[in-house]
Amino acid sequence: MNKKKCAWVTVLWILLVLSGCAKKTISPDPSLPPAGGQAATVPGNNGPTAAGNAAEIPSVASLVQRGGQLAGVGNYRAALDLYGVALPRAVGNDKNVILDSMESVLLRCDVDLLRGIKTGTDSQIPPSFVLYALGYRYAARGEKEISRDLLQSYLRQYPHGRRVDDARQLLEIITVKKSEGIKIGCLLPLSGKYAVFGKRALKGVQVAMARLIPRYGDKVRLIIRDTASDRDIALQRMQELVDDRVMGIVGPMVTAQDVAGVAQSHGIPMIAMTQKDTVVQTGDYVFSNFITPAMQVEALVSHAMGYLGVTHFAVLHPRDKYGRKLTDFFCDKVMERGGQVRKVVAYDGKKTDFSKEIKRVAGFDDPGIQASLRRSGGVGGTRGAGGYIVNFEALFIPDAPSRLALILPQLIYNDVTGVVLLGTNIWHHPSLVQQAGPYVRNAVITEGYFAHSDRQGARQFKNAFAGMFETPPKFIEAIAHDTVSMLLETVMDPGVTSAAALRDALSGTRIFDGATGKTMFDREGELHKELFFLTVKNGAFVEITH
């Protein structure tokens, strides 16, 4: 059997075994000749498969799509095999798409796999791609001399290669000695529309530096730039940091999405401080450390079901973007964990009387629901003082204190009592206690930082902050402190000798324990954060500990 026939047997084996669909037939592609009409036995199939007959050759698009799926689960060798088969058949821009995909996968391969590709007979993968990827991966491993030789060889052999600029920059980065000082950038909106947040974040940065400078001295330098709350200025300041050869960047906040692409293209790890979860989709050099709506909803559901034993929920939400978004998150998470959302009711935020919506969400206006609950003995519900059985055990209300001050008293007035109230960090405001304190009963509230927590990291930060500033710290100050600390402590790790190594060190098993709790990024760069749970007792917010 010639090489082309063998290649297609391999491809069919990958597609059929890894996709788990051995009995599924694949549409024929007339642009590729059949494998000589010979029957080939495909591992994982029940019998012989004739190429172009029982299982026809897949299209270029399907090969590329399947290659992406394999790469996504770490099967890089199989992904490269599929790209290698698809490339000769591709035309026009499809070739560039496949080459981009090949290059992306190669940069994620380990050195042993790359060495095998380089010395093998895989003629479809450009040798320039493999050479640069080897230099890149050795730099990530901290083996600077080998990386330097490979990158210099790449520049000599491929002076017009796709990665010439990246190779030059990486060469400069890996020659930096930590004794000469590592430079870290920090982008904050210190002027303009969002200056109030930038200045608060700066205080957190200053507390972190006051703690870390005695430890590291002149081995590290923080370069702070003002984005002026403006996209164009943020891009200018970002370019200045690139020109300064910083190894990593903290921030920005409101302009994170605008500058993330610059950080990714230059291979500079950036930890933004934004709740926009789309920013991390820019690439593997872009991280974000912030509390997000999805994160809070997941924590609330986990606490309610795992700790409180709640299985039946309801949602009462404002008819606006925030309310709808969090309601969707909430319902998805409850169903993922096997719970039930009994009722979802929206209300007009401009109203002041919510009795109608409260009765609807509780099921009081449906005699059938009440009869069913009584027959079941109230299973999945909560009995109110007036004899009604509420149709759930916990109620999620994603709204601000100004409306909660109207809604919560009306819940009790309408006999919705004894249920757990679930809310996000926007509940954590003095006005909620001031205006609705007696009605905030059985509440569970998520928060990213709580100054009165007994956690060591939160307590130490609060004390350090009090020694420098008169006002008490809040979440913005705490998250800025933790983000700077996380990046600086990681960059000063002896094994971190390049920007690529810094990126790899940030994602994986490293857990940072700071003012905002335990924080880590997984292998895909997704943030995992330990949130605080609060409730209201005796007219004050207190931490729920368990």
Automatic annotation (TrEMBL):
Residues 182-539 form the Leucine-binding protein domain. PANTHER family: LEUCINE-SPECIFIC-BINDING PROTEIN, PERIPLASMIC BINDING PROTEIN OF ABC TRANSPORTER FOR NATURAL AMINO ACIDS. The lineage of its organism: Bacteria, Pseudomonadati, Thermodesulfobacteriota, Desulfobacteria, Desulfobacterales. The keyword Signal applies. Residues 1-22 form the signal peptide. Belongs to the leucine-binding protein family. InterPro entries: BCAA_transport, Leu-bd, Peripla_BP_I. Gene3D superfamilies: 3.40.50.2300. Keywords: Signal. It comes from Desulfocicer vacuolatum DSM 3385. The keyword Signal applies. This is ABC-type branched-chain amino acid transport system, substrate-binding protein. It comes from the Bacteria.
